[in-house]
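Record now logged for everyone:
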Amino acid sequence: MTRAWERIRRNPVPSLLKSLLEDHLDPGYAAAAADRAAGRTRTTARASRVWLGVGVLLAGLVIGVAYEQNSDLQPGNDQARTEILDSLRSGEERITALTAQRDELGAAIDERRAALFADGGDGATVLDELGEAEAAAAATPVRGPGMTVTLTEPAARPNLSDASQHEDAPSALVLDRDLQAVVNALWAAGAEAIEVGGVRVGPGVTIRQAGGAMLVDNRPVFSPYTISAVGSSSRLQTSFVVSDAYLRVAGIQQLYGVGFSLTAEDDLELPAATVRKLGNSGETGYR
């Protein structure tokens, strides 16, 4: 009488695993060695040279065709690049000319308005109220003493090949919220007018990032980022250095090597902000 457990089939060793453990060479190697020992070679030296020559010829043909196609496309690429650069230059020249024309017309309007309301009375009152409204809307240039805050992207970035420095860090170390914090701190410190990168900050101006670009009022500004504020230099410095924005920027300076400096200015000249007009629906639009 046999016991039931003796009839249970044990797990066999897989043939593939067994061959890997016991046969260290592929059977093809042994067959090729046996053929060489018996003098049976599959290819002769002459045939090998022929196939090598054919391969070199095909590789040269492919490289030649690719080079010819690249040569044919290069003039077209250069022409397209030249046309794009010419279009950009002409656009910048047109923008400069239109800006100058706008400034001239604005000055003429201001002179005419002052002449019409120079007789005193209600006209002078309206003119004063209009001037105050324009100043609040940052629609007029401002000049006076103040302070400049400068933030600069570091020249050398962290060594990403070092495993100890692997971090999910953004490509730009100075962020839009850093500039926003500085601007808000300067307003709280008593600034009368502020510009960022040459762009005047008004009621409807935004500071934000789009991809790798920093936009102020939808206009790109680049490092070093300069934030200039008109006001009492001593008051601006005293209030700014105890603000949260100063601690924030000082922190990223120490951690990431961002350039950070404060400069008292005796004479700053800030341009007017872009003027916006209300549409019929009450929404603001660019003019």
Observations:
- The chain has two domains: 20-105, 141-156+173-273.
- The chain has seven helices and ten strands.
- Residues 45-116 form the longest helix (72 residues).
